[in-house]
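Readers of this paper often ask what the protein records in our data store actually look like. Below, we set out a record of this kind in full and without editing:
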Amino acid sequence: MNLINMKRNNIGRRDFIRYSAAAGAGALLTRDAVANTSTTPADSNQKMPERTLGKTGISLPILSMGVDRPDSSNVLRAAYNAGIRHFDTANNYQRGRNEEALGAMFDGRPLDSRFISTKIMFPYPLRDNFEEDFDSKLEVSLNRLRIEQVDLLYLHDIRTVENVKDPRVAASLLKAREEGKTKFIGLSFHTGDPDVFRAAIDMGIFEVLLITYNFKMDRLEEYEALIEEAAQKGIGLIGMKTMAGGTVDAEGKKQINGDACLKWVWKNKHITTVIPGLTNFEHLDKCVAAALNPKINEEEERYLASLENEEMLFCRQCNQCKPQCPAGLPIPDIMRAYMYAFGYKQARISKDTLANVGLTADACAGCNEVCTVKCPSGFNVGKKIAALTPLLNTPDVFLT
């Protein structure tokens, strides 16, 4: 894919303050944007296609539910009634309320009626008490979910080859499986970095990988070769970030065609299922309609091709920005937080992401008048960071 060269506006201290104030007042506090997917009513007799999750042998519908911020437990029930069986959440989503909602939803239901995955995240390098902390967080998750064994347990948001190969990570996941606290183990990684993907495959112990996968990714040909290799080795693959940011324009006003994005992912037979964050009934209905008619057409292909040179909100994680930043900020992670806030309208998840990378409100103070980072995708990095700073001091109760 070609990277675009856009006119980049420098941002000074006064602009930084102005952008921060404007963003904090409204954009971060709105409800979730709904992808522009098909509204064709689904035939009640239709069923979503299913695929097998690698060597686990588990068959899942091609559409699953990312349980990160549903409007209510009614959305969970509606998703289940629509034929969704795989529900993906994490220990830290909404401070555990999502795991609790899933626990209440499936309490008393047959175990084979659902497939639940959860994720646990840790800062790196791992602390001395990692193993104890891992066991504690897993027990908390199981209690919230009201089960003794989760179907799939991930170590969450693994970012480097070193993290993948850390023997303490592998040992803790294997121990959880041996003790019967999870059926299957895996890793999730947001970066789309082929080197991290390669390391995960080479470890040879992970049964499932939760991977970023969309049409806007950097090094896509190399990445898809790894998808093929992983599948040949029996690793189950689940896709996330499939909507490439959710909006086409940098301001987050023009929604992306979600049908086309999902169907592009489903073209790859090795992706068992995808986990969009189905936050409301409209989003659920539209994604289910797409899953019932998953073959991409020529018009949708042309539409996606037309977006190759659009900035959009998806950071390709090329990492060319990192050595440019005098403050050494983890800019790709901050750009991902920007996508959560302004593309997906998930301000709380954005704030959590910023907290995890240690961004502070004065992080850019040393640069005085101008942000010197030049993003090959055209992101105005300074402006985007300024727009995020109000989140750092906004109480969670006011965030979506």
